[in-house]
Every structure is written in structure tokens, then in C-alpha cells.
Amino acid sequence: MTKTLRYLKPYSGTVIAGLVLKLVGSVAELFLPVLLGDIIDKVADNPAYTYDQKVKYSLIMGGLMLLCAAAALLGNIFANRLTVKSSGRMTHDIRYDLFSKTSYLSSRKTDKFGVPSLISRLTSDSYYVNQMVARTLRLGVRAPILILGGLCLAFSQDVMLALVLLACLPVVGVIIFIVTKKSIPVYMGVQQKQDAMVRRMQENVTGVRVIKALSRGEYETERFDELTRDLAATEFRANRIMSLSNPLATLVLNLGLVALIIVGAAAGDTPGTVLEFLQFFVIILNAMIALSKIFVVISRGSASAARIEEVLSEDVGENIVPCRESADGAIEFRNVSFSYNGVGNNVKNVTFSLGKGQTLGIIGSTGSGKSTLINLLMRFYDADEGEIFVDGRNVKSYPAAELRRKFGAVFQNDFLMAASVKDNVDYGRGLSKEAIDRAVDCAQAREFVDGLEGGLSYNLAQKANNLSGGQKQRILIARALAGDPPILILDDSSSALDYATDAAFRKALAAEYPSATKVIVAQRISSIKNADLILVMEDGEVIGAGRHEELLNACGEYRLICSAQMGV
Ligand SMILES: Nc1ncnc2c1ncn2[C@@H]1O[C@H](COP(=O)(O)OP(=O)(O)OP(=O)(O)O)[C@@H](O)[C@H]1O
Ligand SMILES: [Mg+2]
Q1: CATH class of 331-566
Q2: Given CB 3.0 to 4.6 Å as the disulfide criterion, which of 35, 150, 327, 435 pairs with 389?
């Protein structure tokens, strides 16, 4: 948790100012019963004072009480404001770092955490940390001051009555301790169930079309209902346990009050003193209950802090390995093998080489390892065996940014932002208008973009849901081309284009970006037929490599695909 708490350091001034104000407010609050007891004893039942003296004394002491009440009120209000400020800023900083860490995590580490878990760390976990810090700053100082200060004042006023008070506190303490201890695991369960509910909600909202298409609305609603019922039951259990502490503590309070009155009467204490002690009792008891609530918030927050720190402490430093070996051409794979989870190889002993400006076509059944080759080429994952070279250098020897700058890529199921078409193509790179226009033209997107209201300024909805599948793909292709990359990767990115548009795109690509090395993953033979090298993948292995005509002769699998698609 220390790492998380360090985020408060930049705001230590605000935190300290808040704590000082809390201190002032709490001390002022403690003096209220003392002043009240004093007025009652001196004014109500004291024959030594004349009527005028009583009025004067009441006014002075009453004024002092007002001052203390105002100090307590203002101190608490301003302290709470400062607390919200510092804890809010701290949470902002944590979320900022967590988000940037998440964006730099290696794909393997992202797989390890899982996307839903990273999302809940960014949202609910950081919220629980915020609650922990805010509540602790608000009550963590106030409650102990009220308890200790209350006890000190009590002893300074009347030792006998203070001892009665002191005797009751351990009983209240034990009750609160037991109740809190029982409730903490239940609250942790609530937290986990909330996470599960948010995860299910995210899944359902993202997959709403699938749910509708398969008419699974009722099924999903029922599954969701199960989760919320479970959550409600756990919350009920947690609250039921916690709700025990107030009545039990109040019972002890009432018994204590009776004892206080009896001891006070026996010792001949004045009504003012007894009243004063009754107030101390209430203040201290409330402070103890507040403390118990802090324990719950702290145990929940510290579990969240640990989950956040787990991500924050991940090393995202670049693993750059100096490699002396070099290669010719734009891309070379040498005996590359790779497994995502260390069980079976998803890519097995792949070797090929491609010259600058050439086109590589990759075809094969689903799950055969085509996208994995792209992941390895762009070093989203490191190969377990073998070497991969880009522009003659081992990919491991490049700083990540330098390597990735060489690529323009459209990934399988790529995404578009809720922004204008132009902003999506530019993607914050500050590209020239000419570069954007050229890319939009080449991607065969001009005609439909001009037909949109506002053309390039047309705003896309989230996930570009206001475009058709083929239109989305053309914007994605334009985005990849606009940076004029030395290597262009297109992973299944023209599958939604009709044959004529696909052919026009390939023609424009060859004419407009002749120097770019192209890697095209496709299911259609027509998309890769003219490639300089075609790899036929099957179960992670390259089972055929060569040009179209060579493969027609040499690779049975390729021939099968061709005959299925083109009747060749
Ligand atoms: N992140 C991952 N973690 C674990 N296994 C994975 C991961 N990504 C892919 N795989 C597995 O690796 C194998 C190859 O997947 P890959 O995505 O490369 O297939 P593909 O040839 O691109 O298929 P498609 O044509 O369907 O896109 C598959 O068996 C897949 O289940
Ligand atoms: Mg794929």
C-alpha cells in the first residue's frame, strides 16, 4: 500500500492543512460539553451567584459555546473540502499512471491480467482507494482526537466518573471489533461480486447485437439477475452484520449512562458534571463507531491498492537486446517458433524472407497462426525460438517506438474512435492534408466519404457503428496508409470489400505506395494472388511457400482453396 500512499505526497500541504483544521474542529467540539456543564453548575443551581451575575455568565459562556460550535462546524467543513481535493487529485494521478502503464504493458502481461480485470483496477479499485484515503483523512484523525481528548478532559474534570467511562470503552471496543472483523470478509465479497456484475454488464453492452441476433435477451437478463441477486444478498448480509454494532454499542452506552448517574449521585457530583459526562460518552461512542467504519474502508481499499500496485510495479522498460547478426531485405523470419501459453506451439519453425517493396501474402485456415506471425513481426510478443529481422536488424535490437514507426497496420477486428473521419485517419500524428487525401483515395474511401455529411469532418459513432463493415475497413486502411509506412500490414482487412473495390484498392496500392513492403493476410486468393511470396499456414506451420503458380503445382492445400474459391 505504501506505493499507493506515495501518491499523496505532492499534496502533503493540502493534507496537513486539512488535518490541522480537523484538529481545531475536533478540539472545539470537545469543549462544548465542558462549557455546558459549567453553565449548568454555575447558573442553574448556585445560590452564590446573583441573578445579574448568572445572566452575565450565561451570556459569556453561551457566546464561547457558539464560538466553539462555529469553529467545529467551519473546521470540519473546510477540512473535508481539502480532503476531497487531495484524495481526488491523488486518484487522478493513480488513474493516469495506471492507464499509461496499461497502454505500455506487453501483450503477454495484458493477457496475464486480462482486460476486464485491468478495467476494474482502473475504475472500481481506484475508487475504493479514493474512498479509503478520503474517509481516513476525514475520520482517521477526528475519531482518535475525540476519543483521547474526550478521555483526557473527562479525567481532568472528575476521576471517578472518568473511570466509569473508561470501564465501558473496552466493552464497546470488543463489540465493534468482533462486528467489524466479521463484516470485512463479507464486504470483500461484495466488492468481488460488484466486479463480476460490472464485467457482465460490459460484456452485454458490447455484445448487445449478438444478444439480439440470437434472441438471448431473456437468457442474459436472467444471468444478470442471478448476479445482482447474489450481490444484493451479500450486501444485505454485510449490512446486517454491521447494523449490529450500533444497537449493541448503544445498549452499552445506556448501561454506562445508568452507572454514571448512580456513581455521580453517590459521589455527590453536580448535575452539570453528570450531563457533561453523558455528552462525553456519546461523543466517544460515535467516534468509536466511526473508527470501525474506517477499518472496513481501509481493508477494502488496501486490497484494491494491492491490485493497483500489481499493475504499477510491472516493468514496462524496453527489453532491447544488442544483436550482431543481420539480414538482407525488409522482413526475415529464421526458424521462428512461439507459444502463447507454453503448452503447444502456435507457430512452428517458420522461415521466410521478403525483399524491400515486395508483397507477402499469408493464407490458411482459421487459427493457423497468421495473426500470430504479425504479432511476432511487430514484437507484440517475443519469439521463443529463432530470429526475426526487420530492415536487416533483429526486432529485439530496436527501441519499440522506432520499430513500430516502420509499420502501418490494420489489425483483424481493428477499432475506430468516436471522432471525425479525418481525426481517425490522422490519429494525432499531425499528418498533412495531402497525405490524408492520398490515403483516403488509395483506400477507395473517397466516394463514400464525400457522400457523408461534412465529408472528412463527419463524426463517427463509437466503434464507428454508423458505418458499414466495408466502409469501416476502408477508413482503417486509410489510417494505416496515411503515415506512408515502409511496411504495410493488412490482417484480414479487406474481407468486407466487394471484389471490384478490393481489386481497385490493390491496383491503387501498387501504384501509389510502390516502395512499401506489404504483408497481406487474407482468406481470399484474389487478395494475395499477385504477391511475391505466399505462405500457406496450417496449424502453426508453413505448409507451402512461393508464388501463386508455384503453389498451384506444389501445394495441395493451396490448390484446394483455389478450386473452392475460383474453380481453378
Ligand atoms: N492471446 C492469445 N492467447 C492464447 N492463445 C492465443 C492468443 N491469440 C491466439 N491464440 C491461439 O493461437 C492460435 C493462432 O491464432 P491466430 O490468431 O494467429 O490465428 P489466425 O490464423 O490469425 O486465425 P484467423 O484466420 O481466425 O484470424 C490459435 O489456436 C489461437 O487460439
Ligand atoms: Mg487472425
Answers
A1: alpha beta
A2: 327
Q: Which amino acid is at 242?
A: M
Retrieve residue 89's grid coordinates.
487529485
pTM to 2 decimal places: 0.76
Contacts 24+ apart (CB under 8 A), 150-156: 150/30, 150/280, 150/283, 150/284, 150/287, 151/284, 153/30, 153/31, 153/33, 153/34, 153/280, 154/277, 154/280
- The predicted-structure confidence for 207-233, as pLDDT tens digits, reads as follows 777 777 777 778 888 888 888 999 899
Beta bridge partners of 410: 490
User: Cα separation of 514 and 356, whole Å?
Assistant: 10
Residue-level pLDDT at 568: 56
DSSP 8-state assignment for residue 114 = -
Atom index in ligand 1 nearest the CA of residue 347 equals 14
DSSP letters of 393-418? EEGGGS-HHHHHHTEEEE-TT----S
Whether 313 lines ligand 1, by a CB cut-off of 6 Å, is no
**Lookup result for grid cell 486539512:** 18
- How many whole angstroms separate alpha carbon 44 and alpha carbon 217? 72
- Which CATH number describes the domain made up of 2-312? 1.20.1560.10
pLDDT of residue 315: 84
As a residue count, the chain comes to 568
Q: How far is CA 46 from the centre of its chain?
A: 65
Which ligand minimizes its atom distance to the CA of 541?
1
Q: Where in the chain is the domain with CATH 3.40.50.300?
A: 331-566
Please give the biggest Cα pair distance in the chain: 122
Output the CA 366–ligand 1 centroid distance in Å: 8
The residue whose C-alpha atom lies closest to atom 31 belonging to ligand 1 is: 367
